[in-house]
Amino acid sequence: MATPSFSSLAAKRTLFLLSAICLLLAPTARATDVKYCDAKANYAVKVEGIKITPDPVIAGKQATFAISASTAEAISGGEVLLEVYLFGFSVHSETRDLCEDIACPIPAGDFLLSHSQSLPGFTPPGSYNLKMTIKNSKQQQLTCVSFNFSVSWWALVADY
Ligand SMILES: *[C@@H]1O[C@H](CO)[C@@H](O)[C@H](O)[C@H]1NC(C)=O
Fold first, then answer.
1. Is residue 7 part of a domain?
2. How far does the centroid of ligand 1 lie from the alpha carbon of residue 126, in Å?
3. What is the CATH classification number for the domain harbouring 56?
4. Any keyword Transmembrane (predicted)?
5. Strand partners for 69
6. In this predicted structure, what is the pLDDT of residue 79?
């Protein structure tokens, strides 16, 4: 005799597994952990948080990194150095004009630096690390932070 309880248990398990997978893949706006490159340094610019949209980032689609930070002194200009690592290997590095992503001068206080970029479609999915250094126009380091982000392929993300 077939035991109906067994198949119902299996169905429940499958359902649980499916919802767990959906939770893992849902592009939710969770906060990303940010670390200062040098935990002991007293950076002039404090970074409060980073929001990545979508999260995970989709290869071939535009991704936005919004950094909320605060500065004690006004910043007239400078540059942003972005370094991207995959499994500890540098895969991309670029230097941008700070004033391209935010209106300069940046007055003292809180500010939001938002940078949008499309990742190439062949970007391998995985866990990446991004290191961001901000320098002022005198080449003095104002801050340096690093955070992790994941890259997915479009086909893996349902209902985006
Ligand atoms: C990023 O991930 C690595 C490896 O899992 C971990 O050691 C590191 O602390 C993470 N960095 C941040 C900023 O969370």
1. no
2. 13
3. 2.70.220.10
4. no
5. 47, 111
6. 97
pLDDT tens series, the chain, 160 aa: 555 555 665 665 655 555 554 444 444 555 689 999 999 999 999 999 999 999 999 988 899 999 999 999 999 999 999 999 998 899 989 999 999 989 999 999 999 999 998 888 888 889 999 999 999 999 999 999 999 999 988 655 544 4
Please report the atom of ligand 1 found closest to the CA of residue 35.
Answer: 13
Domain span holding position 67: 30-152
Residue 147 Cα to ligand 1 middle (Å) = 7
- Does 2 map to a domain? no
User: Is there a domain that residue 82 lies in?
Assistant: yes
- Ligand 1 — pocket residues by CB below 6 A? 33, 35, 129, 146-148
Ligand 1 atom closest to the Cα of residue 127 is: 2
By alpha-carbon position, which residue is closest to atom 10 of ligand 1? Answer: 148
- Calculate how far, in angstroms, residue 149's C-alpha sits from the geometric centre of ligand 1: 10
- Structural domain total, the chain: 1
